[in-house]
Amino acid sequence: MGTIADLRAELRTVMAPLARNPYAWGIVSPDGAWFDNTPLNLHASQLTDQRWPASYEIRSWTPDPQLDPRQDDVAADVFMFASPGQARRFFTEASGARCHRDGVERPTSRPPQGRDLAWVNPDGVAQDDVFLLRGRRVYRVTVVRPQVRMTTAPERQAGTALANGLACALPNAGCRHGPRTT
Question: Is residue 56 within 8 Å of residue 14, measured between CB atoms?
């Protein structure tokens, strides 16, 4: 398993509870963990970097009752690497606060062995990510709330809770009680 279609199917389990049509999907490069690159509709054979054999991202606008009528921008990514060691190095770098503006990282309690990252993305908007390392794959679920800068603590917790709840739908997430989206 590891084709683009397989990766897309894994992410659909995360995005399904949102009951929205995605507005963007396709292949993304690993630098998407630092930049807001739009997914590309490329054929898998066009990828030549051996460190990064496959990836996929799905993005969707999602209603947020706290922010009505504004919506959260939610994305799910999976990056598959040639080896577990390469995946671990990417996980460590991508989920670390050091290379993310105003970044704060911490381990998650749910899903187990995940890492939360709160930061200000290149568009100047608060972003909450959860990263999971599973063998050769690194998963990321992202929630961008429509504030201009860093949000208040309760708003930040809402974004993190949504990202972590959605991440529990990932394959091998290890959440005891399944995904939660509230």
Answer: no
